[in-house]
Write a structure and sequence with these properties.
CATH superfamily of the largest domain: DNA ligase/mRNA capping enzyme
Low-confidence stretches: 65-71
Shape: globular
Bound molecules: ligand 5U1
Mean pLDDT: 89
Strand order of the largest sheet: 2-11-10-3-9
Number of domains: 5
CATH architecture of the largest domain: 2-Layer Sandwich
Number of helices: 24
Strand content: 15-25%
CATH class of the largest domain: Alpha Beta
Radius of gyration: 30 Å
Helix content: 25-40%
Largest sheet: 5 strands, mixed
Distance between the termini: 97 Å
Oligomer: single chain
Length: 683
């Protein structure tokens, strides 16, 4: 069949585009499009070549494995080609893969090894007589670059294999990557030194491996996981990949602990779903999972097509990054008047959802990332984290575009914007006169961790304010069913529920009450700290700067905000009215002197979800034994209590060498300390 001109033209266009992006990605570490957009180009070309096989030539990027070569390093011809993997994006693709395996392997039971697919750089390591003698990048799959000197600086990679029994000559293949914590530190250092930052850990790893001076590589936090072998004597191979990985582990080669064996499509998919869920909490970036036939004999029967083996497939995660256009930048005003620029985007599918907004944090960030309205930008949505803009493409913007400037007056109330030199944040000076701050302060007061008024959402607060049914949070407790019945979209049942929720919220705790007041820099932890220290509201209200600063973890700035808050007559009036309207809390019990308690002087941070405690209960248990709970991990932290899905606090603790207590360790510690207390009391 003759190839239609349109198909021919499109294939030529796609090849040129793919070649350009391959070079940007592999040789220059400066990708211009997201991985997903690149995959889409490759898929389109593959589909065209499938429809019109005459288009398929040896020089097509679909027949090649990787990018180009960097001439600064000498070339290394791989003893065996370094293949890449075919990509799958859906359950259907995995079912097709499974069917293809069954067609070739018949009724034999099929066992697959499932592995995370690291977002790093594939490398080949040659060991002769157990000694690392050469390391190379994948390059174009046939020929790579000699990066031995740089690889020798990576502590994870043994220069001498441990144990014994290794073949005289062997090749390890795997992925060099930069763990997220190390990447963050590297970029923070670069930022502080006014140097260029890396867009993501993969680029940072690539840039680090391509250093001419290996002393620079040595400073970079690189790690390595092996995913298989290259050249390897067939007589020395065990029968299964999983056994080979175990053997490698015994020789000191790092093997990812997440690897599993499965024997069905469902097994593959549940591994995929599980890792997708845990992806944000992993210490490194992954862009999918890999399924590989375990038995080497089966692999031989399956063979390979042009650029990828038939016995393995990469099941890609939804891309965490995508390119779209920045339509405009709106400025939002928060509870404390902080002005936050928010990006309005052309809708783009990223991280499994359609994203139309992204945070821009502050003006400094916009300037640093050189982001302008109208730019093409890379949007990142990792897990449930709020989407953010990673970078722009300044060379693609029209000459007429201008840098973004933050407003000098509040976009909501028109008050002057305070530009304090001590803060990166700009603030509206309108206080509660500003409708945005007013509304946000009421939302905060009603929120679950504050006074907790179930059912009082943003829309209802809008109506109550617009109709002047409330002025302050204290007025909430004067609402009646009759007044609520006048509100739109609030049926009788909902109105009854809201009345009940209001009534229930009257009985609160002092820490919650202090948090709910919305004093600047007084979060949940500080609220608890203040309550524990002062034990009653009256003493806190008259505390001076010195007595506030004497409390551990209360610095001069928080102390000033607390004092200022309680000096404002309108705040005192709201507090009085809240108490008059029936808000109350139980007095805190008398407490033995903290110094005598077994956890006195110990500082804890709690992160992740615990099974047997809420965060509050965990904090109470710690403070009951004299310990202190703070919100952020620092060198002063003694323990980080780590539940399920811990965040960056656990990683930071690991970085700082602080002891992590899993829930069972925490319970053991509490029990032990409780016994010490009882023992001391009895003696
Ligand atoms: N985990 C894993 N990543 N990864 C990447 N396995 C794996 N296998 C690969 C690649 C390129 O290639 C196979 C052909 C061995």
């Amino acid at each position: 069949m003759a190839v239609p001109t349109a198909a021919l033209r499109r294939a030529v266009e796609l090849r040129a585009e793919i070649a350009f992006h391959n070079r940007q990605y592999h040789s220059l570490d400066d990708p211009k499009i997201s991985d997903a957009a690149f995959d889409a180009l490759m898929q389109e070309l593959l589909r065209l070549e499938e429809a019109f096989p005459e288009l398929l030539t040896a020089t097509s990027p679909t027949s090649k494995v990787g990018g180009g070569l960097n001439k600064a390093f000498s070339e290394v011809r791989h003893e065996r080609p370094m293949l890449s993997l075919e990509n799958a994006f859906s359950r259907d693709d995995i079912e097709d893969f499974w069917r293809r395996l069954q067609q070739k392997l018949g009724d034999d039971e099929i066992t697959l090894v499932t592995e995370p697919k690291l977002d790093g750089l594939a490398v080949s390591l040659i060991y002769d007589d157990g000694h690392l003698v050469r390391a190379a990048t994948r390059g174009d799959g046939e020929t790579g670059e000699d990066i031995t000197n740089n690889i020798l600086t990576i502590g994870d990679i043994p220069q001498q294999l441990a144990g014994d029994g290794w073949p005289a000559h062997l090749e390890i293949r795997g992925e060099v990557f930069m763990p997220r914590a190390g990447f963050k530190r590297l970029n923070e250092r670069a930022l502080a030194a006014g140097e260029k930052t890396f867009a993501n850990p993969r680029n940072a790893a690539a840039g680090s491996l391509r250093q001419i001076d290996s002393r620079v590589t040595q400073e970079r936090p690189l790690s390595f996981y092996c995913y298989g072998q290259g050249a390897y004597p067939s007589e020395a191979l065990p029968s299964r990949h999983s056994q080979l990985l175990e053997q490698f582990r015994g020789w000191g080669i790092p093997i990812n602990p997440e690897i599993l064996l499965v024997s069905s499509v469902e097994g593959c998919l549940s591994f995929y779903e599980d890792l997708l869920k845990r992806r944000p909490d992993l210490a490194y970036d992954i862009d999918g999972v890999v399924y590989k036939v375990d038995l080497f004999a089966d692999r031989d029967r399956l063979g390979a097509i042009a650029r990828a083996p038939r016995w393995a497939i990469a099941h890609k995660f939804p891309a965490e990054e995508a390119v779209t256009r920045l339509i405009s930048i709106d400025v939002q005003v928060g509870r404390t008047g902080a002005l936050t620029p928010v990006a309005r985007l052309e809708p783009v599918f990223v991280g499994g959802v359609t994203v139309t907004n992204a945070t821009l944090h502050n003006a400094e960030e916009i300037q640093r990332k050189d982001i302008r309205v109208g730019d093409q930008v890379v949007v990142r949505r990792a897990g449930d984290v709020i989407p953010e803009i990673v970078r722009s493409f300044p060379d693609q913007r029209p000459r007429s575009s201008t840098p973004f400037e933050m407003p000098s007056h509040c976009p909501i109330c028109g008050s002057k914007v305070d530009d304090s030199p001590e803060e990166t944040i700009l603030r509206c000076s309108g206080g509660l006169f500003c409708p945005a701050q007013h509304k946000e302060s009421i939302r905060h007061f009603a929120s679950r961790k504050a006074i907790d008024i179930d059912g009082l959402g943003e829309k209802l607060i809008d109506q109550l304010l617009e109709r002047h049914l409330i002025e302050t949070v204290a007025d909430l407790y004067e609402l009646s069913p009759i007044v609520l019945s006048t509100l739109d979209r609030l049926g009788e049942k909902s109105s009854q529920n809201l009345m009940k929720a209001l009534d229930k919220s009257r009985h609160t705790t002092l820490p919650r009450f202090l948090f709910a007041l919305g004093i600047r820099e007084v979060g949940e932890v500080t609220g608890r700290l203040l309550a524990e220290h002062f034990r009653n509201l009256e003493d806190l209200m008259v505390a001076d700067q010195a007595s506030l600063e004497a409390i551990p973890d209360i610095g001069p700035s928080v102390a000033r905000h607390i004092m200022t808050f309680f000096q404002q007559p309108h705040n005192l009036e709201v507090i009085r009215k809240l108490l008059d309207n029936g808000v109350f809390w139980d007095p805190l019990p008398e407490r033995p002197p903290t110094e005598a308690l077994p956890l006195a002087g110990k500082i804890f941070v709690v992160t992740g979800t615990l099974d047997q405690f809420t965060r509050d209960q965990a904090s109470e248990a710690i403070t009951a034994l004299g310990g202190r709970v703070t919100s952020s991990v620092s060198k002063k932290t003694d323990y980080v209590v780590t539940g399920r899905d811990p965040g960056s606090k656990a990683t930071k603790a690991l970085d700082l060498g602080i002891e992590l207590l899993l829930e069972e360790d925490f319970i053991r510690l509490l029990k032990g300390k409780e016994n010490e207390t009882i023992g001391a009391e009895l003696s």
